[in-house]
Amino acid sequence: MAALVPRIRGFNLAVLVITPALGLYGLCTVPFNLATTIFSAIFYVFSMLGITAGYHRLYSHRAYSASVPIQLFLLLAGASAVQGSALWWCRSHRSHHRYTDTPLDPYNSHRGLLYTHIGWMVLKPAPSPGSSEENPGTGSRLDGKPGRSNDSDLRNDKLVMWQHVNYFPIAFFMGYFLPCLVAGWGWGDWRGGLYFAGMVRLTLVHHCTFCVNSLAHYLGTTPYDDKLSPRDHIITAIVTLGEGHHNFHHQFPTDYRNAIKWYQWDPTKWFIWTCSKLGLAYHLKTFPSNEIKKGELTMKMKQLKQEQDSLTWHKEVADLPVVTWEHFQDQAKERTLVLIAGFIHDCTAFAQNHPGGAMIVEKSSGKDMTAAFFGGIYSHSNAAHNLLSMMRVGVLEGGVETTHDAPPERVVANLRPEDINIDFRVPPARKLMIVEATKTQQDLQ
Ligand SMILES: [Zn+2]
Ligand SMILES: [Zn+2]
């Protein structure tokens, strides 16, 4: 614990401790005022939009272009959230995207929820546990400092630099003074303006936006990719004006949307879209839906493959002994062996469970029942075909009965082994398979 003291960023800690403390004091001592409460809620949304639509989607990711009034609106709103200038914020955020889940990620999820939520802001960087002195990939030192990201576009943006250079007075005015002034001049509630619209609102804004770095890398699903920690969850989306669809966002960061389904909660997207309809925002970027769907499909197939792998399947041809017709005939006298589609099936245990009676199966021992099974007498169900495949014990040499003295009903007329209908050979449950590409499967490239 003592080792942490020299690493504490005093100013940030003070803001993050004093603000909620004063907010709590205000909650206990200042009378409720409806106008102040409504104003606080509006001011909360204003501050949140400054971070989500401004710092994040506009400045960090350039997901759209905004007119000067909207840029100014978002920079002032972002400053009212008192969490650094847009330039500082975006630099860290771009680093986070570039080095997600690595020691160079300023809010590396492997450091735990508390660190990614607030720790990274109140503590100066320290080497990640287990990190080596040098990063073999880049040669850069892993001294805990965030990896570099390019901010030249932001440094060339006059408004961003104006906000950066004058950040402290702007943030103080927007974050604390303005809410107090509005409630004081507006309806005489100076203290309510300061404590509710100022301190309490700011505390909520802080922790809601911090959730994007903490909770959105911890809670939820991975519908687009599961290689890294970002996740989608409705709770994170609700508290962050839509930023909780973080799995999508890390896959498609330049998309102005974080949620693409109409029913998903993403007010920041709605705000940007509305601005575009009013001519205040333009060049809204969207990732090609074809590529988005590939991500979704990959994850769905991954899940299906897990299910597929959890089932027991029949033996493949290569795993079965090849049996001659004569040997098959010999064995069929001792147990119920039925030939269907070139495969010999041991139906001894199953015969008693045959819905058409055991006799039919037992009488078929030693015979080729391909035609009968697939419709000659009764067309069996897909489930029956799947079950049948589990009884495979061998492959008949030549695939079909080849003896010339066999009675005609035993022989599938003019059938060569390679001609056996694929619908007969492959059980229905095996027709669609998910196969993983491996180094030896060149054809899947
Ligand atoms: Zn993230
Ligand atoms: Zn981002």
UniProtKB/TrEMBL annotation:
SUPFAM superfamilies: Cytochrome b5-like heme/steroid binding domain. GO terms for biological process: unsaturated fatty acid biosynthetic process. The keyword Ribosomal protein does not apply. One of its GO terms (cellular component) is endoplasmic reticulum membrane. Its EC number is 1.14.19.1. Residues 127-150 are annotated as: Disordered. The chain crosses the membrane at residues 12-32, 38-58, 70-89, 167-187. InterPro entries: Acyl-CoA_deSatase_haem/ster-bd (IPR009160), Acyl-CoA_DS (IPR015876), Cyt_B5-like_heme/steroid-bd (IPR001199), Cyt_B5-like_heme/steroid_sf (IPR036400), FA_desaturase_dom (IPR005804). It comes from the Eukaryota. It is found in: Membrane. CDD domains: Delta9-FADS-like (cd03505). This is Acyl-CoA desaturase. It comes from Punctularia strigosozonata (strain HHB-11173).
